[in-house]
Amino acid sequence: MRTERQHQTSRDNGAKSHGPTTPEGKAASARNATKHGLTARNPILLTVEDQQAYQRVQDDYEQLFRPANVVERQLVDEMVSVQWRRQRAEAIEAAQLNFSMDRMANDIAARFDRIDGATRVALAYNHEVNESRTLHNVQRIAERLSRQYLRLLKAFQNLRENPIDPPANEIRTNEPGEPQPAAHQLTKIVEFPSRAPSGPAHPSQPEPQPAPERREDHENGLDNH
Predict the structure, then answer these.
(1) Tell me: the pLDDT tens digits for 114-167?
(2) Please, are residues 153 and 79 in contact by the beta-carbon 8 Å criterion?
(3) Contact present, 14 and 67 (Cβ < 8 Å)
(4) Which of 19, 137, 170, 221 could be 166's S-S partner, Cβ–Cβ 3.0 to 4.6 Å?
(5) Residue 147 and residue 85: Cα distance in Å, rounded?
(6) What separation in angstroms does the CA of 186 have from each of 13, 180, 206?
(7) Considering only CA atoms, which of 79, 219, 211, 210 is closest in space to residue 149?
(8) Is the Cβ–Cβ distance between 47 and 103 less than 8 Å?
């Protein structure tokens, strides 16, 4: 198990990481996922979306969270992706309402002499809710992405507070000033059972004692002499 001092060292090292700062370093970081040519363009982005705008969000998140290892970096990348898609869902909702208001413009002009913007939005929203499931689907996606973002943020915070322990077989060196482990902590005493004594498996029975000589036998013996 890692000591509290090692946990604190990991947290301090993570706080010192600022991510790439030079244009060359940022460009190299942006190409990390395109080494094999499978994703020459960020797969998260649509063709009408701005690659540089996405990269600016990525840089802001790296500057804020300062990932210290590959797992923290993956969580930060995923948070950027989820946040981008959530904002996209909000943009789709607004675009759908604008489209609906434009489509209803002639009908609204024929029905109303005067109408404010909020009423136009309400009519468009009512039309989309009753005639289409687009808004419902977009809002459902936005809610799911919001929950996913919070889970990723919590996972990052938990990882920063409880860094991953090294493998059990990793050789650990004592830090300066750290007390040396006691000898009984370095070796494990294995006690072997004492060797069984040679001889039969079962304990030997006492040898039978001769029966006491009877008086009659003794007298008969004297007579024979």
Answers:
(1) 999 999 999 999 988 888 888 889 999 999 999 999 999 999 999 999 987 665
(2) yes
(3) yes
(4) 170
(5) 13
(6) 29, 10, 49
(7) 79
(8) no
Does the pTM exceed 0.90?
no
Q: What are the counts of helices (DSSP H) followed by strands (DSSP E) for the chain?
A: 9, 0
Q: What is the C-alpha to C-alpha distance for residues 121 and 97, in angstroms, rounded to an integer?
A: 7
Tokens 């809710």 appear where? 129
Sequence-distant (6+) residues with CB within 8 A of 6 are 163, 175
Tokens of residue 165, six digits: 């322990």
The two three-digit tokens of residue 45, written as one number: 């982005």
How high is the pLDDT of residue 119? 92
**Amino acid (1-letter code) at residue 183:** A
DSSP symbol at 33: G
Among 18, 22, 28, smallest CA distance to 66 is for: 18
Let me know how long the chain is: 225
Q: Beta-carbon neighbour count of residue 144 at 10 Å? A: 14
C-alpha to C-alpha distance for 92 and 86, rounded to whole angstroms = 10
Q: Which of 99, 90, 106 is nearest to 127 (CA)?
A: 99
Distance CA 52, CA 23 (A): 12
Q: Write down the H helix ranges in 4-50.
A: 4-16, 23-30
Tokens of 193: 């059972």
Measured CA to CA, the distance from residue 42 to residue 34 in angstroms comes to 8
